[in-house]
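Exercise (ungraded).
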Amino acid sequence: MLNRVMLIEDDDVTLMICKLRLKKSLFCDEVVTTENGAEAIKYFEDQLLLKEEIRKIPELILLDLNMPVMDGWEFLNEFDQKYRAIFDSVRIAVLSSSLDPDDEERTKNHPLIIGFISKPLTEENLLELKNSAPFRDFYK
Amino acid sequence: MKIQSNIEKVISIQVEEDSIDLLNLLLPNLEELYSGCTFLLYFNPKCSIANWEKISLKLNTAQNKKSTPNYPSNGGIYVPPFQHYFIYENGEITSKPFSKNPLLDNYDFYVSLLKGFGSNLFGIILGTSLNQIQGIDLLPQSNSFAYAVKLEGNSNLVVQSNLLSNKANTNLSINKLFDALNDFLKFQNPIQTEETSEIITSKEKNEKGGLLENSALLFENTFNENSNCLMILKVDEISNTQEIAHINWAFEKLTGYKPEDLLGKSPNILTGIETDIKELIRLEEHYKKGIPGTFNLLNYKKDGKSFWNKLTITPLKNEHGKISHWLGSILDITLIKKQQNDLIASENKFRNLVQNASLGILMIGKKGFVFVNETICNLTQYDETELYHIPIQNIIHPGDLTQFIQKLDDLMTGLVQETNQEIRLISKSGDIIHIDIFGSKTLFQGEPTMMGSVIDRTNKKLSEEKIRKFSHAIQQSGTSIIITDLDGNIEYVNPAFTKASGYTEVEVIGKNPRILKSGLSAPETHNNLWEKLKNNEQWKGIFCNKRKNGELYFEQATISPVFDKEGNKTNYIGVKEDITQLIELEKEKEKLVDELMKNYKDLKQFSFIISHNLRAPLSNLLGIIDLVDPNTINDETLSTLFNGFKKSTLKLDETVNDLNKSLVLRETTLNKYEPINFEEIIEKVKTNLSTQILNSNANIICSFTLLSDNFLLIKSYLENIFLNLIANAIKFSKPNISPKIEITTFMVKNNLHLQIKDNGIGMDINKVKDRLFGLYQKFSKESNSKGLGLYLVKSHVLAMNGKITAKSEIGEGTTFEIIFER
């Protein structure tokens, strides 16, 4: 079980469902939710201002791709450039309703991304992620 | 000296008008001298009847009507009655009656005799004027009063022999003339006859007066001093050959021989190696037959030099009518012959020139062709002889004949001096030949004839024909054609130009095509145009021009330089197509495409809306269902409702998934054609369908043909096709019977066939028909059938230019066959 998972998702119902699912599946202790990429970046900025001990850095980010203000791809770029070095324990799983095969293809080669999950987030999906090789390698 | 009178003697006298008086003077003496001779009087036609009568009256005592003068237009024969003769004595002429008149009784005989002599008569012409006669008689200083003449044929060639040309002889009196005559007659008649012989001794002669003696001298001189070369040949009675008996001084002078060289020799001494044998044989025959004749012989002088001898021989008969002598007259015609040869050579030269002239040369008389050269023969394909015998009607085209003959007549009759016609001939093989004939009038063998030169215009005519056709094509063409000079000034425009531009030919000739400029063509268009044309290249491009009425129009133009035979640029030709309509159509098409693109983008956008905006709430519903544990719902109604909610949500999810798949597949850029490995594809499909296959216990049997590397298809499409078809086969299997799916590929010619055969429930294909592959068509009540699968299959097959067909019967399974052409 992970300590903390961050959800970046603009749809509040989806957010709610994901939060419930994660808890129900005992996937993590704590869920941090943000509504878009920009909020998520702000969250990390805020954390930087805190002392290291009290920082609440998620180990995994479940990232939606289609969002207003700052979408998933933009967030990936921003995070990669600004915080990857600082928060090197953070990995990302893409959570998308898009069926575009290009999307999945783009995520495959990104070093930060360890999984691709088609919505909705279900018990089965989470299991699959948990059992996937990259996930297991990273969260030994 | 003896004078032999012989009734066969003929003396021919040509009477000139001015010698009448002399004749009057002489005739009595002649009559006396040659009593019994026949006098042939040739009257110069100018000599009037009055003069004739003057003579005849004097000679003829008119006692016998038979002797009435016969006076034909060109001369006359007068046979004197010889009743009187005249004696010239002591400077006076006195008339004396003539006792005998043998001619009177034999008049007809003599006439025929004279006729028999024909044209070869020897005679004497006397005097040229009365004054001269008086001069001789009274004024001995005159040196021209007598002529020896030789009458040849009808030509009356008079060879003047001035008896008194030698100054030493100027004092010769008329007696000498008589002597010469007498002498001459003595030569002719050396044989005396007893009955008529009247021997006159020199003494007697002197007693009777000097007349006879003088006559003989006259004849001798006539012979000797004759400028004609004369010889007298004696006929050898035994061998019947000729030997030279006398030659005159002219003969000596010509041949270089002296009398002693020749006398007693054969005249063949004059012949030589190049003398024409044929002519000699002919001469020999004349000698044999005793008939006079004229011959052209190449003879040789004493010094061996050759000369052309026109030899005339006249037989001289004795009193028995037998030929005893021949008089040979030799005319040196070397010069004439040379001139003749030169003339022949020159004529040949001219003939060759005419024959070989590239220009056709012909002569047409009233009866047709009288001369044609080789060019005419080549042109008409007839040979020369044929042309001389074919009527011109057969050679001149019937359409031109009347006109030609009319003009020919006009020329012949002198109505026109020249004629220039364009006519058609018909060759031997029937071809039509167009010619120009330039004719002028000439005489040919005395006949009026047209001499003409002919130019073959057939080729010219053909090119004219060609030009006519081409220009017709240009006139009729719907494409504008402009011809300009090198400065761009218009020389020609066709009617299509007028139609397109609105300008008539008259309005634009001499102007520059820039009058059409609208200013809207791209500026580089014109620069580029002139650059190309200056480099002798063709230019192609589009002008936006302005019609006369101001309307704009577009022209697709091709402008090319035109060169002459020497390669010099002479003109520019512009061929222009009005493409205004095309351009407008093109614009409309572009507009249509834009609209379509916009619609397509909207549609694409819509598909994204579906794929995301519809997808997101649906995911949520699915998430909620996932979160709710049905066992925790205690209320039964709520539980039923939740189940219904769950079922509908799952169905919606499936539909949206399919829909997305179809949209995404069309969008994707990953579809590339590549070599296909069917085993690999089927394995992937099997993995995707592992649950269904496991649950249904399906048996999939594959048989793949080896596909060549260059048979290319789209892998992802094929995966989808198999996925759907296999899934369908499992889905529509018979209850309690394990589905058996046979997948076969094979080649028919170059076409790949794919067969997917199942043992499922099948369907009534007639009912299904076209709807089988339609969108959202459902043919099964099975809950999990949504009707999108076959639509996708067909879409994919069509996308790869393939065909798909289905065979099925209810309860008998279904076979899909897909064919891809190479």
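Further reading is listed at the end of the chapter. For now, observe: The helical segments of chain A are 12-24, 37-49, 72-82, 101-108, 123-131, 133-138. The first strand of chain A starts at residue 2 and ends at 8.
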